[in-house]
């Protein structure tokens, strides 16, 4: 594999052509000035300083509400002030549960009491510190339950469909699910919907352990006692403080009663290691698990629902705690009411060297470099806002509360939000608003990968070519000339910006050669990070260059670099995908109903196992996608006309402030004020985390999820909603064109 990758990299090196850097949005006379600014910015960056920052900020546990969390926020504040930024801490007050009781024991057929603890290691200097949060899932319900245990694979909806066909009911049972294939909060959510009274989540070594490589401390992967902490708040309903949906969680904010919060679970949940999971799973009897459900433990996996009984007890301190957001600004010299916002959180579950301090260190290095530029007499044209968020880990608390508190101002002033989180050695990953694809393409082709010395764009493309699963996929990747941004789901601090307010957003980072199992454990430490994640801290510099150039170009652009042609093409691809999804659903329904009617349904299952024949599904109707198709056609025409005005502005060397403001506010036209069905906090019609995927994105989610739920009436309603939104955007662009042509 390494030889193939090297050959592909050599191809890109030989094919590279040195020419004038492309820089959309700048008058010709200003391109050299911007290039010189970025070069000066790069020279101020220090990988040694990034390493020192990671060590300093991760030297002690610093979860939300801890003394070290506040100390880190105040230290970050002092750095900004030292570098010449106008900085302050904005404090919110949020619900954050911490455990009082954690008990898991098997009561039959044998006795076993789970350790629920990660041991300190002599090779890891911080692993034995005081002040570590114990292993738990935040926002689990309080509970004390004893019941039979059922293995549910990854605990996602399709797994319960298999259990239904096997005749297994989890009602009144405690389920045990593997981490993976979905965000952790989906597992207890689906279990609760199926009547389970408790949920245990464990890391299976096939997904997160010795099947991946040597375990820590010999290698980077999760050892048998490692546990993934994490929130199980139902963020697919809304993120942020559960008690103040839609408003900032200020000290005097009106709060819900905790039992009224619709994004909180009603069953107890607990994460465990594969050491603690082993005796539980090994004791299960009953049906053998399907082949693909088996993990990496050395015994046959069974479904259970028989003799194995477990006792699960958890209860929590349900405290309102301070949440410290550090907000630093440099006022723009020309356009002070246009903001370029950059953010990364600073809180962690324990020490958090990788998640989030590696990203926070890169962001601070950007801020330091910009501070040095200020000392030369330079000032940004637009206002820069750098943010160190608190409370991201429990549920994007700090960023969401800040966005909700400043909603009106952000809708007027926010040009873009640029996010990062954990960072490591490897390849560029980039998600974001698709009107920003050409903008990020230009940057990705100019930032150099520290290992291969080709652009981070070329390295990313070569990796995708090597890992392509078919010739067709390989050809498609090879034919791509520019960077394609992935759609944004959730799981980091961009969510409230784009999905609640419709502010254009980017999420940037590097990884892929930094695999490990330290995630949300006591082993996410400086020692592990420096050995395995980014030795030499080179990719901290690469992230700082990538995000920093994006900040500087947005701040200095004569005409803001939004290209809505790319948005139109992307929406068209989403539409074609939805039409295919409808056809696939229709065909699979017809095939399944045929099998049921013919009595051959058992062919689809292992004939040696019992199975339950389902009732035939209702036929899939033919739905009318023409409103969307017509709206997309109109949008394409309006964007073509807008592009003429855009290019004429660049040629003439004159762009009005109003035109630029309308460019960055255009994404807000994609907001539906009524929000998505059953979760109105999510208002963007193109992007949302899936209702049953959590972090994973659903594009055109109103339509897509209605198809997946076979709610045909809602599919047609959401087609109309999305068509109306696209029509609204077309009218908006036509108005811009008419004013710009006058």
Structural commentary:
There is one protein chain. The relative contact order is 0.14. The chain has 742 residues and is an alpha/beta fold. Helices cover 41% and strands 17% of the residues. It has 23 helices and 16 strands.
Which SSEs are present, and which pair or pack?
Blueprint: H1 2-15, H2 28-43, H3 47-57, H4 67-82, E1 86-108, E2 112-113, E3 137-138, E4 143-151, H5 157-165, E5 174-178, H6 186-193, E6 198-202, H7 205-208, E7 230-231, E8 269-272, H8 274-283, E9 304-330, E10 335-345, H9 353-374, E11 382-389, H10 392-395, H11 397-405, H12 407-413, E12 414-419, E13 426-432, H13 437-444, H14 456-467, H15 471-479, H16 495-501, E14 505-512, H17 526-533, H18 538-556, H19 564-598, H20 626-652, H21 657-665, E15 687-689, E16 697-699, H22 701-708, H23 712-741
Helix pairs in contact: 1-14, 2-9, 2-18, 3-9, 9-18, 11-16, 14-15, 19-20, 19-22, 20-23, 22-23
Report the β-strand fraction as a percent range: 15-25%
| Number of helices, where a helix is a run of at least 4 consecutive DSSP H or I residues | 23
CATH topology of the largest domain: Aminopeptidase
Mind telling me the C-alpha Rg? 26 Å
Query: What percentage of residues falls in helices of 4 or more residues?
Result: 40-55%
How many structurally independent domains?
3
How would you describe the oligomerization state of the chains in this entry? single chain
What is the CATH H-level superfamily of the largest domain? Answer: Zn peptidases
What kind of sheet is the major sheet? 12 strands, mixed
Query: Could you give the count of β-strands?
Result: 16
Straight-line N-to-C gap: 58 Å
């Amino acid at each position: 594999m390494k030889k193939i990758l090297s050959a592909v990299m050599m191809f890109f090196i030989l094919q590279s052509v040195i020419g004038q850097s492309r820089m959309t949005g700048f008058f010709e006379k200003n391109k050299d000035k911007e290039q010189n600014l970025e070069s000066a910015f790069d020279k101020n960056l220090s990988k040694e300083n990034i390493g020192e920052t990671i060590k300093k900020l991760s030297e002690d546990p610093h979860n939300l509400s801890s003394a070290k969390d506040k100390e880190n926020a105040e230290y970050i504040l002092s750095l900004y002030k030292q570098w010449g930024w106008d900085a302050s801490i904005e404090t919110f007050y949020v619900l954050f549960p911490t455990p009082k009781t954690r008990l898991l024991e098997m009561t039959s057929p044998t006795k076993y009491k789970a350790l629920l603890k990660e041991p300190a290691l002599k090779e890891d200097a911080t692993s034995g510190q005081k002040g570590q949060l114990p292993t738990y899932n935040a926002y689990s319900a309080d509970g004390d339950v004893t019941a039979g245990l059922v293995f549910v694979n990854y605990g996602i909806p399709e797994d319960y469909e298999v259990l239904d066909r096997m005749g297994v009911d989890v009602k009144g049972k405690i389920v045990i699910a593997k981490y993976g294939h979905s965000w952790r909060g989906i597992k207890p959510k689906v279990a609760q919907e199926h009547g389970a009274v408790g949920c245990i989540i464990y890391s299976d070594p096939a997904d997160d352990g010795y099947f991946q490589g040597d375990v820590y401390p010999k290698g980077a992967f999760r050892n048998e006692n490692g546990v993934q902490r994490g929130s199980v708040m139902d963020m697919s309903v809304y993120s942020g403080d559960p008690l103040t949906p839609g408003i900032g969680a200020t000290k005097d904010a009106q709060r819900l009663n905790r039992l009224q919060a619709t994004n909180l679970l009603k069953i107890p949940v607990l994460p465990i290691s594969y050491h603690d999971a082993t005796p539980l799973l090994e004791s299960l009897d009953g049906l053998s698990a399907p082949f693909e459900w088996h993990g990496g433990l050395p015994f046959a996996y069974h479904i259970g629902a028989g003799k194995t009984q477990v006792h699960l007890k958890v209860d929590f301190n349900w405290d309102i705690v301070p949440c410290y957001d550090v907000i630093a600004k440099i006022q723009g010299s020309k356009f002070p009411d246009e903001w370029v916002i950059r953010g990364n959180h600073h809180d962690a579950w324990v020490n958090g060297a990788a998640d989030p301090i590696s990203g926070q260190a890169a962001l601070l290095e950007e801020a330091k470099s910009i501070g040095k530029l200020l000392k030369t007499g330079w000032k940004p044209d637009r206002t820069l806002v750098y943010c160190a968020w608190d409370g991201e880990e429990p549920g994007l608390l700090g960023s969401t509360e800040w966005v909700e508190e400043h909603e009106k101002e952000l809708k007027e002033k926010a040009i873009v939000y640029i996010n990062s989180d954990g960072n490591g050695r490897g390849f560029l990953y980039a998600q974001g608003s698709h009107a920003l694809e050409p903008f990020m393409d230009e940057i990705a082709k100019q930032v150099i990968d520290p290992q291969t010395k080709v652009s981070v764009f070329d390295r990313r493309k070569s990796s995708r070519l090597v890992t392509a699963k078919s010739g067709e996929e390989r050809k498609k990747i090879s034919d791509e000339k520019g960077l394609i941004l992935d759609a944004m789901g959730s799981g980091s601090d961009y969510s409230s910006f784009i999905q609640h307010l419709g502010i254009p957003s980017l999420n940037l980072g590097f990884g892929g050669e930094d695999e490990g199992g330290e995630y949300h454990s006591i082993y996410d430490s400086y020692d592990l990070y420096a050995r395995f994640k980014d030795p030499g801290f080179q990719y901290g510099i690469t992230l700082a260059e990538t995000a920093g150039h994006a900040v500087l170009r947005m701040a200095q652009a004569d005409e803001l670099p939004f290209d809505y042609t790319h948005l139109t093409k992307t929406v068209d691809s989403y539409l074609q995908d939805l039409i295919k999804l409808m056809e696939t659903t229709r065909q699979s329904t017809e095939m399944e109903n045929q099998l049921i009617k013919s009595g051959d349904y058992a062919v689809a299952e292992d004939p040696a196992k019992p199975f339950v024949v389902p009732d035939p599904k209702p036929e899939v109707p033919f739905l009318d996608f023409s409103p969307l198709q017509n709206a997309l056609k109109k949008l394409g025409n309006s964007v073509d006309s807008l592009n003429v005005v855009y290019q004429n502005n660049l040629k003439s060397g004159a762009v009005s402030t109003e035109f630029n403001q309308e460019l960055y506010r255009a994404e807000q036209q994609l907001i539906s004020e009524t929000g998505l069905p059953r979760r109105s906090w999510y208002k963007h019609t193109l992007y949302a985390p899936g209702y049953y995927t959590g972090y994973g994105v659903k594009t055109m989610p109103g339509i897509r999820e209605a198809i997946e739920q076979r709610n045909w009436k809602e599919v047609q309603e959401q087609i109309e909603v999305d068509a109306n939104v696209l029509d609204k955007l077309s009218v908006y662009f036509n108005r811009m064109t008419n004013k710009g042509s006058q």
